[in-house]
Amino acid sequence: MIAIVVLSAMLLLGIAYVVYGRFIASRLGLDDSRPTPAVTVNDGVDYVPASAPLLIGQHFSAISAAGPIVGPVIAALWFGWLPALLWIVPGAILVGGVHDFASLAASVRHKAASMGELVREYLSPHSYVLFLIFVWISLIYVIIAFTDITAGTFVVAVSGEAFGPGVAVSSFLYIGLGTAMGVCLYKFKMNLWLATSIFLPLVLAVIWYGPHAPASVISFVSSLSVKQWDMVILAYCFIASLLPLWLLLQPRGYLGGWLLYLVMAASLFGAIFGGFHIAYPAINVEQFKSVLNGKPVFPLLFIMIACGACSGFHGIVCAGTTSRQLCRESDARTVGYGAMLLESLVAVLAVATVMMISRGDALLSTDPNFIYAHGIARYLELGGLPFGLGLGFALLAFSTFVYDTLDVCTRLARYILQEVLGWQGKAGAFTATLITLLLPALFLLCTREKGYLVAWPIFGTTNQLLASLTLLVISIWLIKTGRPAFYALIPMVFMIGMTMWALFLQIKTFLLAVPAFFAGSEPFRPDVLISGVVGLLLFVVAAVLISQAVEALVVHRRGAATEKSV
Asked: Most C-beta atoms within 10 A of its C-beta, which of 144, 281, 447, 492?
């Protein structure tokens, strides 16, 4: 039964948080007597101290988004649910959790420095620029994939009934509620729990209201295509990434965290007490050996499932926005390691929505977000909620998770571009944000429908390679500061091997397709060209960074040996 699988995963994740989380904390030497950057700077814009309950909600919703849903669902459909779970749970405990926890701790110890700044300190200025370019490109692909997934959610229809427009209305009302909550918290000094008791019911109210909005509103929203929604969402990203953290990102992320908790509660209730049996095969034998242009399960599984097991994007969030809000160093275990394990549970529950579907069901041909929402709606039916309302709730929750990641990504990409080019002030922020969002806009306008499927493989590979490089930098920091580093080194070697292998396979596919493009036997596709060129660039940049990291370690060890001999 599905209940046994979910309960087993929860037990393993819970034990890991207590045992392995404490082990990592002891090795990192967390100390609450040392003030964090959020406390020492506290500028009211980017550095804003947040309590652990508020911060974990914002951080959890920022890192979770669609990643631990879409990737695990696709992987479970392709390979079967067993390979997906065998990577999700151990990966989160031994790889992703270490990556997030150590990234957050390292950033806080270096005055909320970005991972790029850590690269500059522990590798070289040249490596710093290359790393920032790599991160910026990675964030661009995150924006592309999640923007298009959300746009698809806003036009989804079931049996001729349009659910998407109602979800779109609810989602924009939700953003307004987040802004209002931010004003109440920071301008009127409203107590957090009082604000929660007011705004959380309002969020549930707008979920109901969205499909019941005036016909004229629904008609207008229904008239927008996926491509038009792509542009609307990118416009939202532009505005949201320039607003102060307290006005939208923190409160909206906090409310999004509650939605995520409610969805998880519904998923846990349905998976454990619903009596659902496993209908989908544990191993999809027909596709296990050859999926996506002949690429094998190794290494494809490890890039298709990024968030939920390990994600380089998490490290950028940890060292970009979360480290600037952490009140105490000890909160890093809860926020960094704990949120990663919670995200792993989200991924497990996403896989469970596939496990309950029979092999020949027509639902398997729909988008991953709809498969997930359909499963949540079935769970909610057990509590007496009509299927249609439950489906709308699940789709809104899904789009909400994506919003949380989109504006965080845009903000971080803006930080990086400003850092590389030295642009300061409001004009620099405005221009950097505009350039950042221009590339996703061009990519999405050039692709066919479901452009996220084109972007997802390169997004997954880039994301996981970013995690590998982050673990590499963390390992060097630990070694150079005399701390044990094996718990970061071993996952780093594994992730670099898998991701460089996967990137090579994708580049190979692109290079083999180029002659067909020029010969006219294959239609020219700008999106494939962009992904291929970017893949080549990322492979070269990653190889250079890895070689420079090895050189830095060799120099360090020689210096240590010389000092010891003296």
From this structure: 144
| pTM, entire model | 0.85
pLDDT at position 73 is 93
What would the two tokens of residue 163 be?
């659910």
Which residues are paired to 295 by β-bridges? Answer: 291
pLDDT for the residue numbered 6: 96
Strands 157-158, 161-162: parallel, antiparallel or unpaired by DSSP?
Answer: antiparallel
345/498 Cα distance (integer angstroms): 23
Length of the chain: 566
pLDDT of residue 278: 94
Torsion of CA 479, 484, 486, 491, to 10 degrees: -70
pLDDT of residue 420: 83
The answer to whether 311 touches 96, Cβ cutoff 8 Å, is yes
Q: 555 exposed, middle or buried (CB, 10 Å; 0-12, 13-18, 19+)?
A: exposed
DSSP E strands in 124-223: the ranges are 157-158, 161-162
The two tokens of residue 292 are: 């996506």
Place of tokens 């490596």: 127
pLDDT of amino acid 229: 92
The CATH topology of domain 2-35+52-565 is Amino acid/polyamine transporter I (1.20.1740)
The predicted pLDDT at position 416 comes to: 84
Question: pLDDT value at position 527?
Answer: 63
Is-contact 149 455, C-beta < 8 A?
no
Low-confidence residues of the chain: pLDDT under 50: 290-293
Query: Cα separation of 185 and 179, whole Å?
Result: 10
* 344: phi then psi, degrees, rounded to nearest 5: -60, -40
